[in-house]
């Protein structure tokens, strides 16, 4: 099975970052914070994030959606979409 983590800001339909794994991601909940500066260029373009949101930007999780994709009757992919806002201060 494939696991996909997509991180979005606000209502923007373009993901800030996309991560893929053969192992499940740890749980993420509303209110959790996400610091993008450990990402390097693995899943998102850090230079674009710094330019758009500032050099010390941290995101707070506001909502989460799970999508389960089947292939030939088997669960083939778990897609986790995490929606965020910029954490003030």
Task: Explain what the structure shows.
Helices cover 9% and strands 46% of the residues. With 89 residues, the chain is mainly beta. The longest helix is centred in the middle third of the chain and has 8 residues, at 46-53. It is elongated. The N and C termini lie far apart (39 Å). The model has no long low-confidence stretch (mean pLDDT 87).
Low-confidence stretches: none
Helix fraction by DSSP (H/I, runs of at least 4): under 10%
Mean pLDDT: 87
Question: What's the tally of helices?
Answer: 1
Topology (SSEs and partners):
Elements: E1 2-9, E2 17-21, E3 33-34, H1 46-53, E4 59-71, E5 74-86
Parallel strand pairs: 1-5
Antiparallel strand pairs: 1-2, 3-4, 4-5
Gist of the model:
This protein has 89 residues and is mostly beta strands. It is built from 1 helix and 5 strands, in the order βββαββ.
Key terms for this structure?
five-stranded mixed sheet; 5 strands; 46% strand; 89 residues; single chain; 1 helix; mainly beta
């Amino acid at each position: 099975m494939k696991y996909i983590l997509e991180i979005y800001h606000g209502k923007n339909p373009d993901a800030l970052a996309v991560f893929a794994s053969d192992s499940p991601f740890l749980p993420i909940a509303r209110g959790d914070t996400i610091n993008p500066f450990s990402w390097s260029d693995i899943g998102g373009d850090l230079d674009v994030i710094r330019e758009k949101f500032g050099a010390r930007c941290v995101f707070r999780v506001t909502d989460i959606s799970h999508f389960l994709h089947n292939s030939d009757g088997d669960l083939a992919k778990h897609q986790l979409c995490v929606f965020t806002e910029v954490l003030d201060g």
